[in-house]
Amino acid sequence: MRENNQVSALVKILTDFAVSTLAYFFIGYTIAYDHNFFAPATELTGQQSYGLVKFFFLLTFAVAIPAIVSGGVAERARFYPMLCCSFLVVAIIYPFFEGLVWNGNYGAQQWLTDTFGAPSHDFAGSVVVLAVGGWIGLAAVILLGMRRGRIKNGQTHGFAPSNIPMLALGAWILAVGWFGFNVMSAQQINGISGLVALNSLMAMVGGTLVAMVLGRNDPGFIHNGPLAGLVAVCAGSDLMHPLGALAVGAVAAPRPVRGMGRDRLCRRPAGLRSRAYNQCPETVRGR
Q1: Distance between terminal CA atoms of the chain?
Q2: pLDDT tens string 181-208
Q3: What is the Cβ-side half-sphere exposure of residue 90, based on CA atoms within 13 angstroms?
Q4: How many CA atoms lie within 13 A of 156 on its CB side?
Q5: What is the DSSP letter of 130?
Q6: 75-95 confidence digits (pLDDT tens)
Q7: How far apart are CA 242 and CA 231, in angstroms?
Q8: Phi, psi (rounded to 5 degrees) for 151
Q9: Could you give the CA distance from residue 96 to residue 86 in angstroms, rounded to a whole number?
Q10: Cβ of 36: how many Cβ atoms within 10 Å?
């Protein structure tokens, strides 16, 4: 994101959250779980109190989808059309996939069990959240093309990060928040597992170190490495061994590094680089 577009991006983050909340509350949550919160307030504070907390937590997954897409199409989409797209994605597209995997809608999980002997396992959203957002962002980037100024004298040029300290701060905020994202995916206190926290940590470490080596200490590469590892480990963070999580993070990190480092050679549209860690690593573990 270049400096002259940062204010617009910051405004869009907040408005996306507001629009996505309405979309998920009125439509999306009902599609995914066949449940709504239109009962009287006295009933909501009684038996449905846990359901309200669950909705709030799952909303944080839902609003991540527009954020992923927004990063992919940065500087190439008008404000209000993007808000409309965010509403449609959170209201219909994302809840459809969410319901398939996390609620067994339309018999999808039962079909997988009958056909392959096991259901799809995505503990914290490698595929349901992050891959879906990456796929939507990929389609949008392909349709919109490159940002202005990317091609000079017939050659593709990358944009350097406009603010390295903010890049580092953002990566740290995401990484720290990811532990709550992953650990609390159990959605129940008695289901919380220290293994999930440790696996998230090991995947983050593996991604960071591999990105450091392959990216030759470049701050853009290094700060994408831990995020790639965390994305990749989400699906199986409750099952794998910590050494396996370390390997998953290490395998995932080269994808965004290669995607960003070879940008000039393959002439891929800007935005594919920013979505690299969402489109690729989840396939390492997501099923």
Answers
A1: 32
A2: 899 998 888 888 999 999 999 999 999 9
A3: 29
A4: 15
A5: I
A6: 888 889 999 999 999 999 999
A7: 15
A8: -110, 120
A9: 15
A10: 13
